[in-house]
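Entry 14. Ran structure prediction on the chain below.
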Amino acid sequence: MNTNTRRLTSRIAAGLLVPAMLSVSTAQAAEAVPWDELPKKLELNRIHGKRPNRQYHVVTTDGKTYADYGLVFSPTDVKLMYAGSSIPREQVKEIRISRHGRFWDAFFVPADALLTRIGGEDAFVLLLIPPISLVMVPLSVGLTAAAAPIVLPTEGIKRLLPDNVIQVAP
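Output, structure tokens:
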């Protein structure tokens, strides 16, 4: 009887918590940010990993949406980093940020963090050196396997969250 009560309690808590988590991003949607503060608000200068894990959707006043993994702001326009096209400042209505990455990349986050702390940005070069690789390969594989039950569900939840919407102030 006690076990059924615990299961019921956990189901009720999950039923209340999941919709609350999914609505957190939409509660921030009414926020209007001036053009000059957009790069700081979007944290464009902060490195989020070697591969981009955030996709930016620029929505224009006529309803078109342009998607890219990086944005470059100037006083007159915003340029999509990888696509190369630019959108004039007057036409930008809002910017949506979504997490868009592969689970394969998320799986190797713990080992990548370990190797980056030891060897810097080009840490995978360490694996090419035989004496170091004898120690580092089993260590990074073990760390990845141990962290997988935590990292993969976390990355899955991040991808379920709705887009973060930032409106551009006129």
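DSSP finds five helices and eight strands in the chain. Will compare against last week's run tomorrow.
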